[in-house]
């Protein structure tokens, strides 16, 4: 199999994406690989790709991204950029650059050596109320729900020239009701048509810069059983195989009965794993790349991830939490780093007490530091996974991880940053406010103030520390 | 202490207020304030003062606040445990009443603190009244002590206040306005959330050497106005990017002001600054023209 793969790749133009499997066992098993693209950092797989919102990893300005993270690939959803298209031309389409440059990359100021992967929908996507049609999917832009036609998606890919385009799929997301049988019957056919569109568009427009194509295509594999999409999978395997550079996987279960001929392709997961344990499960099935929404979800919730793979052998019978909720005031005087031994920017320069203070004060820096740390934890996690696969001890290590750590991330207690319209779907009238107001009138406490007694005028910090600043004088 | 809080009660003892976090009653005395600042260990610490909005019609209360601030200064000096490593600045009060300001200057200068702040301004008063207060105070302050005008941050205010003899400023405006999507440039403040910038692919300010504006070929990020429009008020990173630019703008402005002073061409610097900000000379703000005229700089003459 490895020989075939090398042969297959050597036929591709030099400028294209290449994926080399460095280690794989027979059947369903974790594997090591190397994803290379000219001009970009080579990515050792398994790994994750940074998950962006409106062109940035949330809370990390582009300079922080370059200086203080090791992220070599990002996933960018098109729906973040096409507010009123097609009625109004999105601004990014108007950015005119030489054919060798990607307007999308320049627009979001993404560094040159980071791999740019474009898909249609955010991760996680907000489920749209309208169903997909035969020619378009439902999306949510910052100005509302609308449709994105397959033809428009191809045009966007040609114009924006990302390194990799994830083809449109007629996906029913986790948040949505199970698809009916009638719908399932259509899913494969629609996705097949759309995949043909995006593949055909590779050489379209005459805007060809990298050999014969202006982008590489990852074809979606639908989150339904093999049997229900068999004609689509056959089409991928028989007709389109040479045009594909990878697969987008929405349900890791798809990996089990994937056609053999597709297995040399890199696999990018869009399955919204909720925990590192679920990542390990997907890794055991041979997943190569991941989008991981829980990293940002943890950051927004004020949780510092705290796990390593393989887990260190510390004695203790209780299961260890996967992260530390930084909101509680128990951290207020704790000068230790978020995770001991972590070498990230946040852990080497700051401490838990400062983090807790920043969150309590709702300072944006708090989320920035957490985001840097949480991505570093994932970097280390995947480095550990690769070493473990290389040594052949992955299954053992995975069992150890599941024994040592709690199965889920800690519960979210604190409020995150303001939620924006493109991040949630309104549930109709009577819905609770998504962003609570920061201040309220204090009139009702007027009497309290009048009754308050005060400490002596000679009091100094030492005395006052005992009751805490500023001292609470007689709560009623 | 500025009463941004709706309910605060100032007595001779200190300020009582309700915690904005949980509504619990709190008391801040001059001694406690200094004690806290001693434990924080900052290089400069500020006295606790009694601040009344300059726009307050209650003259008697303004006078009381000024005199109380002087008395509180004495308590702060007495309570200051680390005068050898931390510099206590007094804060001159007195509203817009120049006579009260003069009295306050005399009283506070006599107490010989390492630095002097002019407080209570930037609270919505007319700009000419502001300039008169700064001018009056700086005229009475010793030459060799830093003069710190508190809460001032618009570029015009800084440039004029420097001409009036002020040395230091602080303001939340550059970063706050960045969070709202406003960019400070030498030709004025741009609201980059306006749709006219949606497809404007020029940098926030042409030629600006800040990390945000500098093109990628020169090691910058090459952020465009269109991208700020895309993220402002939607992603926190938009606020980060504009904050970098805005703070850089103000630091550079102050640096050029220092250079101009050293090279003895501050009047020319001020003229150049206003000419860029207001291409039409007739639009120059009256208060700035008058204030600068008072110190011998005529903006309307080349």
TrEMBL record, chain A:
The source's superkingdom equals Eukaryota
- What is the name of this protein? Uncharacterized protein
Q: Give the source species.
A: Coniosporium tulheliwenetii
TrEMBL record, chain B:
Question: Could you name the domain of life of the organism this protein comes from?
Answer: Eukaryota
List the protein's name. Answer: Uncharacterized protein
